[in-house]
Amino acid sequence: QVRLVESGGGLVQAGGSLRLSCATSGFIFSIAAMDWSRQAPGKQRELVADITTSGSTNYADSVKGRFTISKDNTKNTVYLQMNSLKPEDTAVYYCHLRFPFNSWGQGTQVTVSS
């Protein structure tokens, strides 16, 4: 079955960096389209970045220029490199498989202190 396991979250000071990883199994990763979304307390879940089957990427305006999404087809893993973190980036970050199935990871907490 499809499995998505996020890691890499934690506590970081404003201006710092974190790299989130989403290890996957149960499907053909090389054809997958995926995204990272986040949900802050009291707010709706929002799309942060996505990567298509062909490797094209899109970013929310709030993270453009600071975050980078990437896929490693040899490790069946999708990453989110987060630089210049801000307190408003604090949220639970979720890995989401869009294609060929719809599935979510359990989430990883990112906390950015000011």
Describe this structure in words.
With 114 residues, the protein is an all-beta fold. The strands form two sheets. Strands 2, 4, 5, 6, 9, 10 and 11 form a seven-stranded mixed β-sheet that branches. A four-stranded antiparallel β-sheet has the order 1-3-8-7, with no helix packed on it. A hairpin with a 4-residue loop joins strand 7 and strand 8. The chain is globular. The mean pLDDT is 97.
Q: Which band does the percent of strand residues land in?
A: over 45%
Number of helices: 0
Low-confidence stretches: none
SSE class? mainly beta
- In this structure, how is the largest beta sheet organized? 7 strands, mixed
Rg value:
13 Å
Shape: globular
Mean pLDDT level: 97
List the helices and strands and how they pair.
Elements: E1 3-7, E2 10-13, E3 18-25, E4 33-39, E5 46-51, E6 57-59, E7 67-72, E8 77-82, E9 91-99, E10 103-104, E11 108-113
Parallel strand pairs: 2-11
Antiparallel strand pairs: 1-3, 3-8, 4-5, 4-9, 5-6, 7-8, 9-10, 9-11
Concise overview:
With about 110 residues, the chain is an all-beta fold. Helices cover about 0% and strands about 55% of the residues. The protein has strands at about 5, 10-15, 20-25, 35-40, 45-50, 55-60, 65-70, 75-80, 90-100, 105, 110-114.
Which labels suit this protein?
single chain; 114 residues; mainly beta; 7-stranded mixed beta sheet; 4-stranded antiparallel beta sheet; globular
